[in-house]
Specification:
Elements (H helix, E strand, L loop, with lengths): L10 E5 L2 E4 L4 E6 L2 E7 L5 E3 L1 H4 L20
Antiparallel strand pairs: 1-2, 2-3, 3-4, 4-5
Bound molecules: zinc ion.
The site of zinc ion has 8 residues, from loops.
Length: about 70
């Protein structure tokens, strides 16, 4: 198992189907065959990152070349 975000293998199991990446501090939670990804904030709250990872917008190549930042800025 690797982190979906940083591909680190430094993953800790925090629940029956929950994992935590020590490298980038995201939580991955499996619900059925669905994976939920959360950012864990310093105060312990979590915010969903699902829209970052599971966006299903088709890629539309454009005439002008656009630099794509793959590291999530
Ligand atoms: Zn990670």
């Amino acid at each position: 198992m690797k982190c979906i975000n940083c591909h680190s293998i430094d993953i800790g199991k925090i629940g029956p189907r929950q994992y935590f990446c020590w490298n980038c501090c995201i939580e991955m939670s499996f619900a059925g065959d669905k994976l939920d990804v959360y950012q864990v904030e310093a105060d312990g709250s979590v915010s969903s990152l699902n829209d970052l990872f599971f966006e299903e917008e088709p890629l539309q190549p454009q005439e002008t070349e656009i630099e794509i930042y793959s590291d999530g800025r």
